[in-house]
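[User] Could I get a sequence and structure tokens?

[Assistant]
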Amino acid sequence: MQTTISKIPGGICAPAGFKAAGIHCGIRHNKTKRDLALIVSDTRASAAALYTSNLVKGAPIYVTREHLKDGYAQAVIANSGNANTCNRDGLQVARAMADLAAGALGIPASDVVVASTGVIGQPLSIEPIAAGIPALVEALSADGSLEANEAIMTTDTKTKSESFAFELDGKTCAIGGIAKGSGMIHPNLATMLVFLTTDVSITPDLLERALRADAQDTFNMVSVDGDTSTNDTLCILANGRAGNRTLRRETDPGYDVFCQALHALTSTLCRQISADGEGATRRMEVTVSGAADKESARRVAKSVACSSLTKAALFGADANWGRVLCAIGYAGVPVDIDRVDVDFVSAKGEIAVCRDGAGVPFSEEKAKEILLEKEIEIRIRLHDGEAQATAFGCDLTYEYVRINGDYRT
């Protein structure tokens, strides 16, 4: 069932009943940068979240997992500048963040999602957060999406936000989100915080199912540098304010519509994250078609998007297609290399560089012109079946090394 999905302004506050804020409370030394964010629904909402697959996890993840056991939440508090990971009192600080937000909002602490991002292993004092809570709550606004987005940024150079409108049961619904992520980005989530909101009425179980399924083709397909971080949190709140009939089963006609809207939002945020990879000059999208099954398509696409040599070639606008085939070959998928086709595509056109696993004559000048664009697609056809997948990445530059060589200083 197809539906019309239209971009609307508002970001995280586009759905009815949501407010947000972001302030500088003093976690960061730079007073011009916001470092504490709050997102609040005016009613208790169905909630679901996914987290990093890294065995080393930030303390806020453990607190959030505990709070979301009943499938509901009403607020999200997040800080930047300090990841609250590998700290002896990390759990105590994360719980205190929830308690402080809950007390100021007049809601149970168990209805507060907690998240952190920034440097790992540095002690996080609760004092600046406690001091900043009154101003943070006072700043809550239906126009506060941008400020909240700025407050979760670390090495990001751009805010990442989008929102869409669609219809369910004749009711106008909205879904919006903000994200941060620039470095330590790798499939199975990454150094990203992603907060999504919607005014759709949906049960917690079905919301979690939708989020988990969608992430397989969106956030789990993003890679900047091959490092899976410790604090990744992808969270969605659905407060039901749109007034649609509550979605309870995958067979509900509206569920497919909701999933389409969710995917429109998450795929947009993935493209924004990959475009803003640390030091990146070009965004890469790897599209694999003709795979034997979905998982094979995903693995091949990820392998190419994660290849350091392919990423370096992209930085140099070098049509070194052999690196693409190399990455396909170690993806761990049974592929007949003698049937593989590869094209490079951008706003400047497209060029065939490989057919049936072998090079074909092409203009290096034309290829360079195509690869000098800001957004590049690598199209791979395996000719093994009908499945397809897309991975999101970027080039690998000198600037990436500089940023991470002095990250703490």
Summary: The domain at 283-405 is CATH 3.10.20.340 (Ubiquitin-like (UB roll)). The first strand starts at residue 6 and ends at 7.
